[in-house]
Amino acid sequence: MLNIGWFSTGRDEAARQLLRVVQDKICSGDINVKTGFVFSNREPGETKESDLFFELVRSYHIPLVYLSHKRFRIGGKEKDWRIKYDREVNNKIESFAPDLCVLAGYMLIVSGELCQKYDMINLHPAPPGGPTGSWQEVIRTLIQNKAVTAGAMIHLVTPELDRGPVVSYCLFSLKGVPFAEHWHNDDEEKLFRLIRQHELAREFPLIHLTLQSLGRGEVGIQDKGVIDEQGRLISGYDLSGKVDEEVKKSLE
């Protein structure tokens, strides 16, 4: 069974909902992994939202590990505090020996040193080879480039932001209904909202199905590369069909 570490800032309801979805799937046996610990870069008492997140973690009896990056940064030098912070994070999580770390609403950029020591995956709201940056920047770039395809991917975390090897992905077309009329009218505001709506609906299913596939051995991580169940290197596992099925179920 895959032993995962869950990294989250726990800053909002979405962070709690994502943990809830995955843990409920684990408890039902749908995902064959174990959450060995949850790590947060906030500490109890820092914000109301993160405290609610910590309550949820405890309700699942998962070990909670935390280190406030704000408190750690006080008095530190700007240029090297992040490396020192991640070294302390490593000291706190090393004994859990995670097979995989999942960044799920973790609002810090992981240092090269930490992501080279552990296999880490992250969700990025763009298709493989697509725009980098925040979800807002991704959508603006898609519209500017008059892209015909959007999507989301789970990728390995590397020192190069949003460009690690693709573990899994899902795609959807920006042509036809309901996008065509807004392209025709050059209505960027409506296109922006519509693309975000369709991408966001796929995020939770993509994370759930990726962890399910990893737990079943349908896709794996080896030597910082992604392999299929025959051990062959691949450029990502296409989960578009399965994700679309999950999205359709949620709308019924």
Describe it.
With 252 residues, the protein is α/β, with parallel strands linked by helices. The protein has two domains: 1-118, Formyl transferase, N-terminal domain (Rossmann fold, 3-Layer(aba) Sandwich); 123-252, Rossmann fold. 42% of the residues lie in helices and 21% in strands. The chain has nine helices and ten strands. An eight-stranded mixed beta sheet has the order 3-2-1-4-5-6-7-10, with helices on both faces. Helix 1 (13-27) runs parallel beside helix 2 and helix 6 packs across helix 8 (188-216). The two termini are 33 Å apart. 34% of the residues are buried. The model has no long low-confidence stretch (mean pLDDT 94).
Briefly summarize what is shown:
With 252 residues, the protein is of the alpha/beta class.
